[in-house]
Write a structure and sequence with these properties.
The complex is a heterotrimer of chains A (288), B (308) and C (530).
Chain A: H1 2-9, H2 11-21, H3 23-45, H4 48-52, H5 79-115, H6 117-131, H7 135-146, H8 150-177, H9 180-187, H10 192-228, H11 240-247, H12 256-283
Helix pairs in contact in A: 2-12, 3-5, 3-12, 5-6, 5-8, 5-10, 5-12, 6-8, 7-8, 8-10, 10-11, 10-12, 11-12
Chain B: H1 2-29, H2 34-39, H3 45-55, H4 61-73, H5 87-122, H6 127-141, H7 144-158, H8 174-200, H9 203-210, H10 215-252, H11 258-267, H12 271-299, H13 301-307
Chain C: H1 2-35, H2 38-45, E1 53-58, H3 73-82, E2 87-89, E3 95-97, E4 100-107, E5 113-120, H4 134-145, E6 157-164, E7 167-172, H5 179-184, H6 193-197, H7 205-208, E8 216-222, E9 226-231, E10 246-251, H8 255-263, E11 269-270, H9 278-282, E12 287-302, H10 312-321, H11 324-332, E13 336-338, H12 360-370, E14 379-383, H13 386-401, E15 406-410, H14 413-422, E16 427-432, H15 437-445, H16 461-471, H17 476-493, E17 496-509
Parallel strand pairs in C: 1-10, 1-11, 14-15, 14-16
Antiparallel strand pairs in C: 2-3, 4-5, 5-7, 6-7, 8-9, 9-10, 11-17, 12-16, 12-17, 13-17
Helix pairs in contact in C: 10-12, 11-13, 15-16, 16-17
The chains are: A mainly alpha (288), B mainly alpha (308), C alpha+beta (530).
Chain lengths: 288, 308, 530
């Protein structure tokens, strides 16, 4: 009976169903979707030049009120639209850094894991060097060295995330490498690249999806830390970490300047974590 | 097993050279001339040229690195560009602070996290469970420096319970320990909870229960020791995160540790000091990882069998 | 499950509100503290103070205690405690004899006044008990001459030799109006020859065991944390002998943390107060904030070698377009004065003529006269800290008004210093602090300093001549006229966009007496009293 059910639905539907049953994960998913919607649509609601970065010095440091829902910052800009717009910046930096790390790390890990031997050895020894330095510290070093703008920030964060992806994909690849259907594919003469792309990678996806979700979260936190050290996103871009860091000197008396970007970061990371945990549970039936 | 430890330690040596080479290259190709950073805004062109010469900055990067590596082989970490004193004194003066900070963070995290995780697991799906896991999630999602500043305002400035800066007594490490440990606490509590959940579902726990053993005793004597294995691993893995977090924590709480030193040195392009700090971090990180692996092998006989 | 979720979301909302109020409460309770709760706080700042000690806190740690081994402001403060120079700057920034008892200038064979005979006080004791003599002076100045860190302060000295036990002869490269200022700089402070002789075997001796004749003796240095000093009982000048026995010198890099430290009563004196905490500190009756206008001159520098900033009309347009009041409001929370000239005011030779104030219409006229399209102007402003970043953000909005799009780049200090010295920029927010006009002009505008401190890359032979002439003019009135001429020339040339001269913001507990800060930012810890 059960086996029959299994076949009918297919793995993706099943995973989604399991995920759907997990209430906290659904809350996480809902928040993430809301953030993505905010990120995509914010330019339609707020004009970047006229609202997001337009200064109004006489109205600076206004506490939250009916006119200014979240108050105004030290340059008289409204905090609320900047927070909404900030979703766009934070998420795009987070996801693009992870995307780069995934492509580079995934390639290195897949190649190493699939071929093994000397190639694997060289790649992994190289990765060991990267792994030996705590990730955030490495990101700080690179960001400081490259100088801070969004592009360099993404590169720095991506580089420090590469080894993690390489390691995860490598171990997933190794576990599926010698499974029968891969051998079968090889036997019928499929090319290596085709095997890796069509068979090995899809099977390694589960842990990667979970890792990606959690990695975006940790990257958003790292950006906040980098901003604190003066290595974050350059003004006037409304990035949450930069806003949080810029507001810290006004924290006594004008705590809303830090509170709102801080909450934005917390809620985002909370949501990504809830979603990530839910995905992990849903993708790993052993736990159910 | 000793052979394995030795192998791992020996393997650390090429890794360390790899790490120093990597960081040396990054720091050298980065814009920002150490000589100008040291001499500041008012330097004359001749002074800059003279200092570059003295520091050997006009040589090709690889020559500079080999000179550094040669010293490193003899255990010499070089001379700080900025203070002109040996790097080893700069670092040695700051290691205790960072160790104390990391230690207090781990202690605070473990003391809070393990009971939280265990009780949350036992009372699964109750309000307590939900609440403690929510606190754990907060810990994961709150930027360290923000938490740090809030703690400072509340407990140092307003209540005056703890000093606002410095590293003189144990009191100085309470707030930084909380700020830094909160994040780790969250991970440890979550891991403890889930491994505890797994363990209390096992047959032998049921057996013990059915024999009439009191529940508390079952938990402390049978379930906990087994549930702690994954927790230990997570604690070990947190050390790396804590060291990186120390950079921010030390800045917020004005603690004179390695984390703050490395930031100043990166900003001042004091390459020998940066490398020295990175080496310390890397060595501690690697040794902790080794210890975690060994501990893991010790508690899991299957892994132990592989190394003997 | 559903119920749990509801409880959770409720909790979350509660918690978020709570966090919001931790900070907000700060301002609220602050108000109360000044009213009802004041006595308890007073007890902390008042009688409970240890009268034998003053705890000073500062943002930056000195790179070195070696007087000739750095040119850091953080180090200058410390050197002033432990060492003295032949001269020192008084409260009006004029050089006045310190170790020197008497001096005279003599003419050389060419009839130029280049020979300086200086006699130091008799019986000046170093911290180790030894007595200072001419050998120590000669050795110290010769040592300073070979140090790259302070080269600009030793350039005018050609040689120094001993005349008798207490007298030295200094030869300058022509008449020098800057020698006495140079001798007041920490780079030329006097250290025992005995220590210099040991340098070969122990290169760290000056840093590890700094010995001078200054009012305070070095006790110890916990790197990254604090330094400790104790009064030099045998200080040579009884009038200027230290009154408080011990100094603890704490390093607290975060501005917030310094404010918290003084409000919590952990420190007694803050050298650099964050301007953003000013409202809060002003409201606190237990502390006093000293707002001293300084000679530190801060600008938006544009690269005069890059098009279109090589055109004086473009530079003048940018200068007139920037609302400097707004810059001061945002960057400094109002603690500064609008710069009125290409050179600072408040020192000999100041001049404010031929300089445009903020006037958007005038800016537009300049642009029209220039004839180009403002949209083609590409200005990137490099900033190396939060204050500069805030200033740049205001400028960015101001320039948009006249159609110029600009960007802001944050860089760490090292990159900032290199890029700006090498000319790899279109613009940056910078500044220069000098205690007198000659070294300001030399540093900022002399063509030979292109590639280092002349960051506008101004190369005007006429200007160079005026600057050199000033440094060789010993007569003060004549020198003033030459210096004013130089500034007039600069105001017409408009090489950069002066923004403000900021205030020095030092804060101390209200019961610390006799505090004073000069326009150069120096203070005299030996005069303080509880």
């Amino acid at each position: 009976m059960e086996a029959k059910k299994h076949k009918k639905k297919g793995p993706i539907v099943e995973v989604l169903q399991r995920l759907g049953r997990n209430k906290t994960a659904m809350v996480g998913l809902a928040i993430v979707i809301m953030l993505i919607v905010a990120a995509v649509t914010s330019p339609f609601f707020y004009d970047y030049d006229e609202v997001i970065i337009k200064q109004n010095i006489p109205e600076r440091l206004q506490h939250p009120s009916k006119t200014y829902i979240f108050g105004t910052d030290d340059l008289g800009r409204q905090i609320f639209p900047r927070i909404i717009y900030g979703a766009r910046v934070s998420l795009s930096v987070g996801f693009s850094a992870v995307a780069i790390a995934f492509i580079v790390g995934g390639f290195l890990g897949a190649v190493g894991g699939y071929y093994g031997g000397v190639i694997d050895n060289v790649i992994m020894r190289f990765m060991d060097i990267f792994l030996a330095i705590p990730g955030t510290l490495f990101a700080i070093t690179i960001a400081a060295a490259l100088g801070s703008n969004i592009r360099n920030l993404i590169i720095a964060l991506a580089i420090s995330s590469v080894p993690g992806f390489a390691r995860i994909i490598r171990s997933s690849v190794i576990t599926v490498r010698d499974v029968e259907y891969i051998e079968a594919a090889r036997a019928i003469g499929a090319k290596d690249s085709r095997i890796v792309l069509n068979h090995v990678i899809p099977n390694a996806l589960a842990p990667v999806i979970v890792h990606t979700t959690l990695n975006v979260a940790s990257i958003i936190l790292t950006i906040a830390g980098l901003s604190f050290l003066g290595l974050g996103v350059a003004p006037p871009t409304p990035e949450w970490g930069a806003m949080l860091s810029a507001g810290r000197t006004y924290i006594v008396g004008h705590s809303y300047m830090t509170a709102f970007p801080g909450f934005a970061i917390m809620i985002t990371i909370l949501a990504l974590n809830l979603l990530g945990d839910g995905l992990r549970d849903a993708l790993d039936p052993r736990l159910k | 097993m000793w052979k394995y430890i030795l192998k791992r330690l020996l393997y650390l040596i090429p890794v360390l050279f790899g790490v120093t080479l990597l960081v040396y290259i990054i720091m050298s190709v980065a814009p920002g001339d150490p000589a100008k950073a040291i001499l500041g805004d008012q330097a004359t062109p001749e002074a800059i040229a003279q200092l570059r010469e003295e520091l050997g900055l006009d040589d090709p990067i690889i020559v500079q690195y080999l000179r550094y590596a040669k010293g490193l082989l003899k255990g010499d970490l070089g001379t700080s560009y900025k203070s002109k004193g040996p790097v080893i004194t700069e670092i040695a003066a700051r290691i205790p602070t960072t160790l104390k900070l990391t230690f207090s963070a781990i202690i605070i995290a473990v003391i809070v996290a393990i009971p939280l995780g265990v009780v949350a697991a036992i009372k699964q799906n109750t309000l307590f469970d939900g609440l403690s896991m929510f606190i754990a999630l907060l810990g994961i999602s709150m930027p360290i420096f923000w938490l740090g500043i809030l703690l400072l305002i509340q407990f140092a400035q307003k209540l005056g319970w703890f000093p606002s800066s410095g590293a003189e007594s144990w009191k100085s490490f309470v707030l930084p320990g909380i700020a830094l440990g909160f994040h780790s606490m969250a991970s440890i509590a979550r891991t403890t909870r889930s491994s505890m959940l797994e363990v209390i579902r096992q047959d032998y726990i049921r057996t013990a229960r059915s024999k009439g053993m009191p529940y508390n005793q079952v938990v402390t004597q049978h379930a906990l020791p087994n549930a702690l294995i994954p927790t230990i691993t997570v604690v070990g893995l947190q050390i790396g995160a804590l060291m990186a977090g120390s950079v921010l924590t030390e800045s917020v709480f004005s603690l004179p540790g390695i984390g703050r030193l490395i930031i100043f040195s990166i900003q001042g392009r004091d390459i020998p000091v940066v490398l020295g700090c990175i080496l310390v971090f890397t060595i501690v990180f690697s040794i902790v990882n080794l210890l975690v692996d060994l501990l893991y092998a010790y508690v899991d006989p299957r892994i132990k069998a592989q190394y003997s | 499950m559903n119920k749990k979720m509801r409880v959770l979301s409720l909790l979350m909302v509660l918690l978020l509100t709570l966090t919001l109020f931790v900070g907000c409460g700060g301002s609220d309770t602050k108000g109360e503290t000044n009213g009802d709760a004041a006595p308890t706080d007073n007890a902390k700042a008042g009688p409970a103070v240890d009268k034998d000690t003053v705890v000073i806190c500062t943002a930056d740690e000195t790179p070195s205690l070696t007087t000739a081994g750095h040119n850091a402001v953080a180090g200058d403060y410390v050197n002033k405690l432990t060492h003295n120079g032949l001269f020192r700057l008084d409260k009006e920034l004029n050089p006045t004899p310190d170790l020197v008892e008497s001096y005279k200038v003599e003419k050389d064979a060419n009839g130029e006044e280049t020979i300086w005979l200086m006699t130091i006080h008799e019986g000046i004791k170093f911290h180790d008990g030894s007595v200072m003599n001419a050998d120590d002076v000669v050795a110290s100045i010769e040592h300073a001459k070979v140090s790259p860190d302070i080269q600009s302060y030793t350039q005018s000295i050609v040689s120094v030799e001993k005349v008798d036990e207490l007298t030295v002869k200094i030869i300058t490269d022509g008449p020098s109006a800057s020698l006495l200022y140079d001798l007041s700089h920490h780079g030329n402070y006097i250290v025992p020859k005995a220590q210099l002789d040991k340098l070969a075997e122990d290169p760290e001796i000056l840093n590890n065991e700094p010995i001078g004749a200054g009012p305070y003796k070095f006790v110890k240095w916990n790197r990254g944390e604090q330094l400790e000093f104790t009064a030099h009982e045998e200080y040579f000048n009884a009038e200027r002998a230290p009154k408080i026995k011990n100094i603890v010198w704490k390093i607290i890099p975060e501005g917030n943390a310094r404010t918290i430290a003084i409000e919590a009563g952990d420190v007694d004196y803050i050298i650099e107060t964050d301007s953003t905490s000013l409202a809060q500190l002003d409201a606190n009756s237990n502390v006093t904030v000293m707002k001293t206008p300084t000679v530190s001159h801060n600008w938006l520098t544009v690269n005069n070698e890059v098009e279109p900033f090589d055109n004086v009309l473009v530079r003048k347009a940018i200068n007139a377009a920037i609302n400097k009041e707004d810059v001061i409001t945002v960057a400094l929370s109002g603690t500064g004065v609008v710069a009125e000239s290409q050179t600072p005011t408040g020192m000999l030779g100041e001049y404010t003529g031929e300089y445009d104030a903020y006037d958007v219409e005038l800016a537009k006229e300049y642009l029209e006269e220039w004839g180009g399209d403002p949209a083609t102007i590409k200005l990137d402003m490099i900033c190396s800290n939060d204050t500069k970043r805030r200033a740049a953000e205001v400028i960015q909005a101001n320039l948009k008004e006249i159609g110029i799009e600009s960007t802001i780049s944050s860089m760490d200090l090292a990159t900032y210093l290199s890029e700006t010295a090498d000319g790899n920029f279109t613009g940056f927010i910078g500044g220069y602090t000098s205690n007198e006009m000659m070294s300001f002009l030399k540093g900022v505008y002399l063509s030979t300093n292109i590639g280092s401190s002349n960051k506008t890359r101004t190369a005007e032979p006429e200007l160079d001549e005026l600057i050199i002439k000033a440094t060789k003019t010993l007569d003060q009135d004549e020198r003033e006229a030459v210096l004013q001429q130089a500034t007039k020339f600069l105001n017409e040339l408009c090489p950069q966009v002066p923004l403000y001269q900021d205030y020095n913001l030092s804060t101390h507990k209200a019961n610390l007496k006799n505090t004073f800060v000069t326009a150069g930012g120096s203070f005299f810890a030996q005069e303080w009293e509880w």
